[in-house]
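Lecture notes, unit on protein representations.

Consider one protein chain, 385 amino acids long.
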Amino acid sequence: MLREFSIAVPDAVLADLGERLERTRWADSVAGCGWSMGADVDYLRALIEYWHDEFDWREHEARLNRLPQFIATIDGSAVHFVHVRGSGKRSVPLLLTHGWPGSFAELVKLVPFLTAAGDRRNPELAFDLIIPSIPGFGFSARPARAGYDSFRVADTFVRLMDELGYRRFGLQGGDVGAGIGTAIALKYPDRVLGLHLNCIPGSYRPSFGSAGELTDEERAFLADAARWYDEEGGYAHEQRTRPQTLGAALNDSPAGLAAWLVEKYRGWSDCAGDLERRFTRDEVLVQVMIYWVTATIASSMRYYFENRLRPLCLARGERISVPCGIARFPREAPFPPRTYVERGYEVARWTEMPRGGHFAAHEEPELLAADIRTFFCELLRRCDP
């Protein structure tokens, strides 16, 4: 069952938010520590003041509502999604899936680049875009039962594509979305035209046989990844093991929620330490607001817990057989070398991007869209010589 949807946050929710922001109880900090211990208190104070005094949610709500949005009921749960049809004579259905700490809103910059026709190699090609909110994120329902890992969400999204009448479709994702896209490609290869990723899922582990010993480059990657998780991975360990404890705190404090998310936007984007080189305050606060008004920070973090219990570990000889395009943005870390990825993925295209980070669709939408177009144009050209 499908129905149209518009975002309409109750006035009472916004009034309560304003009161909480006004009553923020600030933690102390060490002079001169900046961002070295986490969110910079001075920056956070300025952001919270702006959020309270100047940020206009209704303006952004209206902007998002210009996108055609829907709710599908799948297995008794609501799945929110955007559905924008392409303008070309040939439109390829493309399922775009966001990551954490993002939302469907981080992908909307891709819409004009992908729904319009005009690629010089395939001028009639455009994409029908399906941009869902992952269950437990944003305006999709929060799962009431355990077990919503990448594979369970893969089943849900394939059901969504069935509801929309798309038998075969392309996939694109980063972060959590890369894991869901990979799970779809692994479980439903006959449904997938191609898989485009700008991140390799964190739980991805290819199998190694007697002839598959690690190269020096792969060993260096694993050592770098271990160092990265030691220095930067505290958030992931907490979310993988005790998401409810952290969720209780962040669901009750908008300043705390902003601190948890903003640190990641600064640390994972290609901003050289200056967050507002890449994101306006409004762009960051829209993401924070979506988590706040839907009360989905705890359910979004439980996704890490679920994927720890069912990680993406390929068995001996198991591969993702559909063609895969990889866009490697320099500030997306840790990122495995191509040889490591190719142990499990059928890599048809690998692009080293000149700039950009974890939030590629938001940071560099034109670069990402161009690589998506090229990848699918090459696939279709091979299918339709």
